[in-house]
Amino acid sequence: MHHEQTNEEIKNEIKQIIARITRIDISEMKDHVLIREELGIDSLLAMEILATCENHLGIQIDETLFAGVQDIGQFFSLLLNLYHEKKMTSE
Question: What angle is formed at CA 5 by the lines to CA 67 and CA 56, rounded to 5 degrees?
């Protein structure tokens, strides 16, 4: 029986991925924190984060969708939506 991951578990895994790549403390990753301006994540780091999240969650992230993402909360929403869409189509 495959464990059904909760949104909270997925968010924690995403935070760990971001922390590993950027060395930013997980406690700083509040939903309202701006990814580029406050966390200082540039396009190279963003690409690495996106690729790692894609592999981890088994999803494809459209870079144009990510371009519209301003803060951590929006990033979580984007990933969770893609993850749940993928699950629904693969069942």
Answer: 50
Which DSSP string corresponds to 13-82? HHHHHHHHHH---GGG--TTSBTTTTT---HHHHHHHHHHHHHHHT----HHHHHT--BHHHHHHHHHHH
Q: Write the pLDDT tens digit of every residue in 60-78.
A: 999 899 999 999 999 999 9
Higher pLDDT pick, 23 / 91: 23
CATH of domain 7-90: 1.10.1200.10
This prediction's pTM: 0.91
**Tokens read off for 50:** 């996106």
**Residue 25: what are its φ and ψ, rounded to 5°?**
-65, 135
Smallest CA-to-CA distance from 75 within 91, 39, 5 is with 39
Domain ranges of the chain: 7-90
